[in-house]
Amino acid sequence: MHNDLVAALDIGGTKIAGALVDGSGRILVRAQRPTPAREDGETVMRAVQAVLGELAASPLWLHTTAVGIGSAGPVDASAGTVSPVNIPGWRGFPLVDQVRAAVGGLPVELVGDGVAITAAEHWQGAARGYDDALCMVVSTGVGGGLVLGGKLHPGPTGNAGHIGHISVDLDGDLCPCGGRGCVERIASGPNIARRAVETGWRPGPDGDTSAAAVAAAATAGDPVAVASFERAAQALAAGIAATATLVEIHIAVIGGGVAGAGDVLFTPLRRALRDYATLSFVQDLVVAPARTGTDAGLLGAAAAASPALRGETAASLNG
């Protein structure tokens, strides 16, 4: 039985992925195209339409009841538009209207990619069973989303929980967003690598200066690489503690490429959190790595689009 499937789209600067997802989180059909990110907006939309067309060619499409979109941001869910930083051809692009037209008028739900990953982790991942959670993506940027009272809390425009642009250093570097000392400016992969190089770390013979290379060096005990990850962990801890103090989350889930560093990140993060999350109602805050992996965007887009999926999650929490 494949009743009430949801079509999910995960749109980023590198690829546009699509899937048909059932009520237990199984991906039944997949489609994918490279994102023509350097092209004009209509060319990018044609790639989206090609993914939807491939999904629609499946006999299972007849059971599709809604479409969920998780997109790189900024997004404006209230207007149905997207302006992804890494897709210059889309500025205020009416993605919801275009997708709705392409799928014959099915309901379409748009959220930012951080909110999508939060929906995935709450439904199928490390935040399952928690009524109040912050889920983060620490990668090229730092994004996130919130679950409050057992429900996804995307906010009016779909951007609530965007922890990467909480300021944690009043005298810190200017951030491209216009703020100063943002979590992202300290804890994203490129900024971890930048700080390591600026403070004297040197790559190996292959010349790799990525955050993954810094993580490998830190794992091997390089003190400068270790210090760069400790600085990132401190910034993350400050942002997580601020969020927990504000809205009383009980778990912070961290995914993305930087989370793949493992103990090099999580050990100093948990240590720093003890220094920042000191009030009685946040002292038991759990920090955990994400579990939904590379399918998080698709699973989260599906969960965000389907009241049935969200209802099942709430029932499992409250049952």
From TrEMBL:
InterPro entries: ATPase_NBD (IPR043129), ROK (IPR000600), ROK_cs (IPR049874)
Pfam families in UniProt: ROK (PF00480)
Family statement: Belongs to the ROK (NagC/XylR) family.
Name used for this protein in its record: ROK family protein
Annotated organism of origin: Streptomyces formicae
